[in-house]
Amino acid sequence: MGFFSxxxxxxxxxxxxxxxxxxxxxxxxxxxxGSAVDDIIMPVVGLLTGxxxxxxxxxxxxxxxxxxxxxxxxxxxxVMTYGNLVQALINFVIIAFFIFVILRAAEKSKKKExxxxxxxxxxxxxxxxxxxxxxxxx
Length: 138
Description:
Elements: H1 2-11, H2 14-48, E1 59-60, H3 69-74, E2 79-80, H4 82-116, H5 125-137
Antiparallel strand pairs: 1-2
């Protein structure tokens, strides 16, 4: 029974629970950012690049030309879909930017909270010594 109690104690540590919470929130955050990228940003990028859909960009490794990625896959051709890599890189940069903005805002709010919460001013060491001296005199 010692193994299971040790395992339970390990799981209930604050670090493990914080990590689990971060993973769940990170997964949800990734879906939100993925939607923002796919539904808002990539159409704008496609418009700027003349209507290019990066996910359909590919290179056929057998040297033949195909009208579309689907046609190449139906023919059984080996293809490198470099457009998916471009899409993934764009997603990464945007997610990294959003995380940077959120962390920067969190750091600024922490600094403001620290500035507002000042330590209560207590008597100085000299004042305490003077009080002790006065008590001893009495």
